[in-house]
Structure formats: structure tokens, C-alpha cells
Description:
alpha/beta; N-(1-d-carboxylethyl)-l-norvaline Dehydrogenase, domain 2; 2 domains; eight-stranded mixed β-sheet; 12 helices; 8 strands; about 15% strand
Amino acid sequence: xxxxxxxxxxxxxxxxxxxxxxxxxxxxxxxxxxxxxxxxxxxxxxxxxxxxxxxxxxxxxxxxxxxxxxxxxxxxxxxxxxxxxxxxxxxxxxxxxxxxxxxxxxxxxxxxxxxxxxxxxxxxxxxxxxxxxxxxxxxxxxxxxxxxxxxxxxxxxxxxxxxxxxxxxxxxxxxxxxxxxxxxxxxxxxxxxxxxxxxxxxxxxxxxxxxxxxxxxxxxxxxxxxxxxxxxxxxxxxxxxxxxxxxxxxxxxxxxxxxxxxxxxxxxxxxxxxxxxxxxxxxxxxxx
Length: 288
Ligand SMILES: NC(=O)c1ccc[n+]([C@@H]2O[C@H](COP(=O)([O-])OP(=O)(O)OC[C@H]3O[C@@H](n4cnc5c(N)ncnc54)[C@H](O)[C@@H]3O)[C@@H](O)[C@H]2O)c1
């Protein structure tokens, strides 16, 4: 039987990078014993340092109490041996790089070592959850838990189910997500899930409008911010996410779903080729 919400005590987060450290933070803040796992001691240590710095700044800004910060730090532990760590996990959230073979290898190890009934989830932003699940002998326990960056701030959690996902696993993931202070939505395993599938269309069209000289990037963003109440226009958002990331997702959606609206605009390809990847390189549609 898949674990129910009250049976989730030990959460294991695999990968201590951008997403993993944030997921471990919200998990520990929700009161779960949380183990952060990466391939090297220095990587997990760096993840823990980032969590400490985040929580400390929360305390300074009056958003987190000293007690909550101390309790979260106490709830955290680290490991570098995937198999040993998996043996204790009630819920696993994998956040290693977006590489199907790597993810499948990890899920094979989880299948060997995780207790029966444990939920095995992936934070993948685009890969097929059903294919990841196929690396295990228990696809019913496998689903997507797609958090957004920065994890401690972004409210959305996309919970992704595939044809074999157990209903109980879905219910547990949603309950755990709420306890982590997220607002979950439930999405069928399909390219781009709900967020990228819609977001890429808007982003691509905005880029095509820049290409055609319809309006400046500032005015296109303002159109959505003031006219449609988007907190941030699509070009600013693309710069923040990284134009290389947007291009990869756009290519992937075009290959899998077809449709001209997913085809990456030439301007996007050119900017990526020129190394103008957005905020991280100092220039994209805007200069930083
Ligand atoms: N960055 C984002 O904005 C974002 C948002 C949503 C989802 N995602 C998804 O989250 C996942 C992680 O992305 P990220 O940006 O945090 O990547 P990242 O590169 O910042 O971190 C990945 C971490 O995984 C570790 N790792 C690699 N192989 C490992 C292994 N075998 N065992 C344990 N750890 C291993 C790496 O050392 C690294 O610390 C990806 O699937 C990505 O698509 C990313």
C-alpha cells in the first residue's frame, strides 16, 4: 500500500542544486525529517549553506521565527549514498539534472532500496514521468512533483500523474505539497505539463512580436503586466528563466506536440548563439 499523508515522516531529496536545496528547505519547514543527497559531500554542504542563508534572511525580515528556523535546521540531514539513504525514505523527491538516462538510473536504485509503499517522485520540468516510472517495478508509486524556482517563494506545485499512477499516491503528494505551503494542481503526464505548454506559446509570440517590430520588449511586457495583470511580462520572464532553457523547451514541445506556435523564433536562436542567455549572462531582451 502506498503511504498515506500521515505516514510520511522521512523525506529524501536527491540533488542539492538550485531546486533540491529549496525543496529540502520547504520540506524541513513543514516538519518532515529531510535528508538531502548529492554525489559529493561538498555539494550537499553547499546546499545546506544556501538553506541556512535563506532561513537567516527570513528571520531578519520577520518572515520566519528563530524557533522555526532552528527546528528546520535540526530536521535536516545529509548523505552521499543513494541506496542507504533510500532505505529510510517515505517520500523521495528527485531533483538531479534534466537527463532521462540519469533519472532512470536513479529510479532503478530507488526501486532496489526504498521501502515498499514509499512515494518516488521527480521534479522534472519536461521529461515523461511514465518513462521514468518504467525504470521501476512499482510505477503506481511514481509521479511528478514539479516545484518552481525559487521554491520557498513560488506557490505552485504541478503534480503529474501517468496512466499507472496509484490514486492514493496522488492524494498523498497533494497533501504533502499543501503541508509544504504549496498550492498543487493535478496534470496528466504530457509534454510541457500545464505551465510550459502555455508559457512557451506566450513567450514565443512575444519574441516574434519583437522580431516584427510590433513594439519594444518593454511595451510588450507592459501590455501583459498592465492589461492582463501578469506579475511579469513574458520577455522579462524568459530572461530570468534563461533563453537557452526556453529554447530547449520550445524545441522539445515542437518535436513532441507539433504546431507552429511551439517552433522557436529565429531571434531566440540567434540570442542563444550569441551567448545572450538573459539575466545570468547580463543580456537577453534586456541589459542587466
Ligand atoms: N532550475 C529551475 O528553474 C527548475 C525549475 C523546475 C524544475 N527544474 C528541474 O529540477 C531538476 C533539477 O534542476 P536544477 O536546476 O536544480 O539542477 P542543478 O544542476 O542546479 O542541480 C542538480 C544537482 O543534482 C546533483 N546530482 C547529479 N547527479 C546526481 C546523482 N546521481 N545523485 C545525486 N545527485 C546528483 C548535482 O550534483 C547537482 O547538485 C531538473 O529536472 C530540472 O528540469 C528546474
